[in-house]
Amino acid sequence: MSEPANTSAAERRRILTGLRPSGPSHVGHYAGAFSQWLELQDEYESFFLLADYQVSDYADNLPWIRWGLWEVTLDWLGVGLDPDISHFVIESGVPEFAELTLHLSWFLGLGHLQRNPTLKAELADLEATTKSVPVAFFNYPVMQIANILLPLAHLVPVGDDQLPHIEMTRDVAIRFNRRFGDTFVVPEARIGAVPRLVGIDGKGKMGTSAGNAIFLKDSEDTLRAKVRSMFTDPKRLRATDPGTVEGNPVFMYHDAFNPNTDEVDDLKARYRTGRVGDVEVKDRLFDAMNALLAPIRDRREHWAARPDDVRDVLAAGTAATKRRGEALVEQVRTALSLDYLRDGPPPPPEGAP
Ligand code: TRP
User: Ligand 1 center to residue 131 CA distance, Å?
Assistant: First the structure.
């Protein structure tokens, strides 16, 4: 990966990642994303983005975004993302993201966008539910590219559904650099180890508004009730029936959240041979998840009681990112010769009338 001329080799390498803040985070976010971000934040200077501009049906969703942005921030503080070493960034608080989006949109073909499988699927959903797809749908992937390129991120930790977006980001950076000189870092994706978590209903992936999520902020009682209600092997009627472990949500969760692998192996063996009841398997899962979530819940409540401190965290991270954005956008404007007023009228280009 090439280092552009404007960063010194002694600087820490950077990551940028984020999400669309439309509501509180669930344990799927933790397993698939936050746990990985936690591991990276000591090594990399980290930009954690609240991508409010990119929430789908933005204009209809403003009250949810306003609320969700604070909820996600508390979730991040709760899991231990550390605002003393990382930046929590409100996207719309850095208008340079928007300006960069405009410039970069010249460097990405519509055909490339339309071939992106993640966007294809999202577009199909949109077309099924909206009369007219907003232009913003086509801007948002460019904006994501701007999100990554603005802080000159080296690494982008994301779920595998975002891989095509990172591929587009690399293309845009390479194309721009080739034309106008080294400006952007060409970033790499880092895919998390845990794939998308299934919901407690076993029906599809866990979703904030799908009614099948365990939220990081759920109380101990709520957690216990949700784990108890989890979908499991439907063919198993009695504890003495042999059960299926593969594809069974309760065991998927054990694999994702129970660090005691001996216990998990033992439960699986007994489940397969009809020597353990669902209740015991679920109680052990509750214990493991509660051990993980209790300190997160406590830290979250600590911050929730101090909204002024949370505001400071968001203001500081956003301001730091804005300063970088200003410098970078200036550089991009110069590269694109948008500094019209610096030298007065230039000589006419070749062939000018
Ligand atoms: N599109 C991402 C998602 O839906 C969120 C996002 C916005 C993002 N900008 C980003 C992720 C930049 C990584 C890097 O989850």
Answer: 25
